[in-house]
Amino acid sequence: MPTQPHQARRMAESFGVDPERYDRTRPAYPDELISRIAGDSVLDVGCGTGTAARQLRRAGTAGRTVLGVEPDERMAAFARRAGLAVEVATFEDWAPAGRTFDAVTAGTAWHWVDPVAGAVKAAEVLRTGGRFAAFWHTFQTPPALADAFADAFRAAVPDPPFDPRGAVAQGPDPYRPILDRTAGGIRAAGAFGEPEEWRFAWARTYTRDEWLDQLPTSGALTHLPPEALAGILAAVGTAIDAMGGAFTLPYATIAVTAIRR
Predict the structure, then answer these.
(1) How far is CA 254 from its chain centroid?
(2) At what angle do helices 143-156 and 226-242 cross, to 10 degrees?
(3) Which of 14, 48, 90, 165 has the most C-beta neighbours closer than 10 Å?
(4) What is the mean pLDDT of the chain?
């Protein structure tokens, strides 16, 4: 059993099972975050379908280039259809071929990268004064939904390898180990200034159908058989119905960032 997220390669490379759904339902990142990432060339690690990469390209100068690195060919193919340049590899194995960048980013992906080896490689490809920024969405799931999900998941997977309630994150606390490992990797690389955290609070209201549309993109569900997934979605849908058919989800997008010395 992997002890760190980056060792769970089967889950890390499972999101391409339905890239259209992933791209349609996963939320974009706050404009305030994207606008703080400067530079004419950006390397986006674990770019997935290109959500952050497209935002970074739109927010930059007319000549800004954004290159994605993505281990899943299915996700990379989707991003390429949106006009992004993407190379298929894990970041640890990716060959920069002498290229350097003004910024290295990772949107909801850096936990799949070895925190020390990744930070060392980011430092190698960053120009002096360039910024590294890894960021995640955290959110406060209503307890009724978290409980319904956990109960249904345990019914579908009687001996789950993780706490299913934690799979639908309860605020920023479950992300603290990931944030701390990211900052620790930056410090261990020995090439950056002191890491800092940026936080951006926002909220989104989901209807029943919208929440059930995005739920299968969770890494906890991408490998479940259809009948097990259907049972989980039904239980969560019932819980949303009991809440009036919609709910508002408070988000906090958190970035761990540092400057290349």
Answers:
(1) 11
(2) 160
(3) 48
(4) 92
CA 160 to chain centroid: 22
pLDDT tens column, 98-123:
999 999 999 999 999 999 999 999 99
Q: Tokens representing 92?
A: 């640890």
Provide the 10 A C-beta neighbour count for residue 62.
5
What tens digit of pLDDT does each residue of 215-250 get?
Answer: 999 888 888 899 999 999 999 999 999 999 999 999
Assigned token pair, 153: 């998941």
Q: What percent of the chain has pLDDT over 90?
A: 80
Q: Angle formed by the axes of helices 115-125 and 176-189, to 10°?
A: 50
Helix segments in 60-175, DSSP class H = 73-81, 115-125, 143-156, 164-167
* 255, 247 contact by CB (below 8 A): no
Strands (E), 39-150: 41-45, 65-70, 85-88, 101-107, 126-139
Per-residue pLDDT at 10: 57
Angle at the Cα of 99 from the Cα atoms of 48 and 32, rounded to 5 degrees: 50
pTM confidence score: 0.91
Rounded Cα gap, residues 219 and 210, in angstroms: 18
Compute the distance between CA of residue 9 and CA of residue 220 in angstroms, rounded to an integer: 13
Q: pLDDT, tens digit, for every residue of 41-64?
A: 999 999 999 999 999 999 988 889
The total number of residues shown for the chain amounts to 261
Phi, psi of 212 (to 5 degrees): -70, -25
Burial class (CB in 10 A: 0-12, 13-18, 19+), 65: middle
